[in-house]
Amino acid sequence: MPFLEREPDGPTRHLALGLAYRGDGFLGWQVQPKGLTVQGALEKALTKLCDQPIRVAASGRTDTGVNAWGQVASFATTSTLSLERMLRGLRSLLPPGVWPRALGPVPRDFHARFSAQGKTYHYYLWPQAQGGLFLDGLCWPLRGALELEPMARALAGLVGPVDMAAFASAGSEPGESTMRQLYRAELSLVEGGLVEVRLTASGFLRHSVRNLVGSLVQVGQGRLEPSGLARMAQAGKRLRPGPKAPPHGLYLARVFYTDSPV
Asked: pLDDT digit string (tens) for 208-242?
């Protein structure tokens, strides 16, 4: 994150917070009328620490069940509490499943969402899943095997300009362009037989990662040609309905605030 070396003088402080959380205990990021949300828990803790109402802006809203270890939130306060005490206080006040990783000053015009230049999401698949234990609720268990080579080719064919409308749910970002730049799209095997899908783009639309992964799984199952994903991206719509990957396998890994996320 673009933390400043020192805080500018003035009564109002502009701060950014990096945090991780497990999504299974929350109704997503955004404050809801009923139920616990990450934003609601964070604003409640900051309001108590700063002794004033605090509203935070996130790099993006995550849905119910979606995890993060690289979420970024920005806010302003007139509190004189030191950064060290504020971070320590947050760690003691926030509910289990949320961990503030870093806190620091940012420029006055910094906004966690509008200053972001790109994001990386990871999605974890578990082919031929055997007895969940510690992986329950943290990945997408699949009964059968997946052919990884055609899946990798399908992802490679997406790199470049992508019309995310092909994978987004209805009502995403009304009135805005749906074109995004996909910088990286890769997969690899990780310990325990999991498959990690990594996507880095200038931005994503609502449910676009989960819908893309759902179609990618169809490729790995031999139900969709590897070129099918690229054809959808070019057409700006899903040419063949597929499953939406469940939220608990999705992780917001990193948000970029540099000139380029690659």
From this structure: 999 999 999 999 999 999 999 999 988 888 777 77
Q: Per CATH, is 13-105 categorized as 3.40.50.300?
A: no
Position 21, amino acid: Y
Kind plus residue range of the DSSP H or E element containing 86: helix 83-93
Q: Which of 9, 51, 63, 163 is flagged as catalytic?
A: 63
d(CA 157, CA 199): 13
DSSP letters along 32-68, please? -SSS--HHHHHHHHHHHHHTS----EESSPPPTT-EE
Q: Which two tokens stand for residue 126?
A: 């578990």
Spatial distance between the Cα atoms of 196 and 123, rounded to a whole number of angstroms: 6
User: Residue 191, class by beta-carbon neighbours within 10 Å (0-12 exposed, 13-18 middle, 19+ buried)?
Assistant: exposed
Helices and strands (H and E) in the chain: how many: 5, 10
Global pTM reads 0.93
Q: Is 163 a catalytic residue?
A: no
Question: What's the CATH fold of domain 118-256?
Answer: Alpha-Beta Plaits (3.30.70)
